[in-house]
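Dear Dr. H.,

I hope your travels went smoothly. While you were away I took the liberty of generating a structure for the chain from your last submission, since the lab meeting agenda had it listed for discussion. I wanted you to have the full record in hand beforehand rather than looking at slides cold. The sequence, exactly as received, is reproduced here:
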Amino acid sequence: MTAITGSLFQDPEQQFLSTTVEDELRTALEWRGYSEDKIRSRLGPIIARLGLEHKLESSLFTLSEGEKQKVSLAAVLALNPRILMLDEPTANLDTHSTQELLTLLTELKHDGITIVIFDHRLYWLESLVDRVYLMDGGRIAEQCSFNDLETLRQRFGLRSSRKSKPTVPLLDQNRPEQMDGIFFKGINFAYKDEYPLFSSFSGGLPRGRVIALCGANGEVKQPWRAWQWGWKNCTPDKSTLTGGP
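The corresponding predicted structure, in token form, is as follows:
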């Protein structure tokens, strides 16, 4: 089965064998003794298909979760599996990356690859799956179509198979601004030997407010976490903490 089956783990890092994107994509093919020409011809279309052309020299550990998954999936597809098995593939993905994965899996399905998905999140599978097997106590307890899942939710403790938006009570947007919180001036951040991601940025985190940091995968979130954790290469010119705990 291993000769015809490829697996994608829920956490792509658990199956990495190298440190850079290109090395990771080449590793299994080199182990199988493929010539350089065959490696290039095998990887070229897959790299283009998954949009990894500009990531080949990147460290695997600087990638977003969606990018890591693309690299792992590309490495698996390079071995031409007839059966592709995925363990909760959307667990760490945002909505956009989930849609990208769905599009790719739909294309692979049309290419004739058999796809087996193990998942708790159901809504994104509606247009993809042909058959659903429900597990209970370590055995297959039910077979059904996707459209039958809602009627079986309570019996098997399933999540909803329909996507819904969370609703919360609206807050008073006109309430006065809190004067205490965390405030900073002149934050600078750059990864080693790379261009600054931001410089001389000033702002604040007032108490009782929700701040959204938005951007494409791998863009804005890591440097802010770095500043939060106190990394020495992410330094403010001035920061203040006001108010009580």
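Two observations you may find useful: The chain has two domains: 5-119, 181-242. Residues 233 and 240 are 18 Å apart (CA to CA).

With kind regards,
E. W.
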